[in-house]
Amino acid sequence: xxxIDIENWNRKEHFEFFSRMVSPxxxxxxxxxxxxxxxxxxxxxxxxxxxxxxxxxxxVNSVDALKLRIIDxxxxxxxxxxxxxxxxxxxxxxxxAFAHYSDDFEIFNAExxxxxxxxxxxxxxxxxxxxxxxxxxxxxxxxxxxxxxxxHPTPLDKTESVPKISFxxxxxxxxxxxxxxxxxxxxxxxxxxDIAKYLEAFQEQLDA
Length: 208
Known about the structure:
- This protein is of the alpha+beta class.
- The longest helix is centred in the middle third of the chain and has 17 residues, at 105-121.
- It is globular.
- Strands 2, 5, 6, 7, 8, 9 and 10 form a seven-stranded mixed β-sheet that branches. Strands 1-4-3 form a three-stranded antiparallel β-sheet, with no helix packed on it.
- A hairpin with a 2-residue loop joins strand 9 (171-173) and strand 10.
- The chain has five helices and ten strands; from the N terminus they run E-H-E-H-H-E-E-E-E-H-E-E-E-E-H.
- 31% of the residues lie in helices and 28% in strands.
């Protein structure tokens, strides 16, 4: 973890400008083509959800801006961030799961599946933010519908700096499968170009 020297940071004015706002968050919703990834996992029997979540985390960890956090009035850059995600239960509730990031899908998926099993056995939100609380990405999936916009609840805490990435049900068009993706970030730490870098890397991972 590296502490950013804000006084000599090229984002100093951006950070201060957006941090003064009641809600310093921004984001947008788009789609990625998940056709190749979907067919690949169906051939090998893997979970499509686990697969695209892992590919999202590979993409996240390739973009430094998505690893910046505000902690104790400092901006820090994590070397690696991990996966937080909501997991639905049969009773209609959900709980949070956490999986350490690994480049290796099988290693990542093994921990994720264990976490999913634990969520299914418990009740309540099951708050699990990893070791440090902010060294993760908050993912959620809405498997019932596709969407073109999304609204997140927020405590309006200007130091809340963990990005939120949401996925929906894929749609079929012209024989291709498109997965809706919503990304929300603290604008003091990142810009539209950083979301674009993430989406480009995510698409490359889905096509690999």
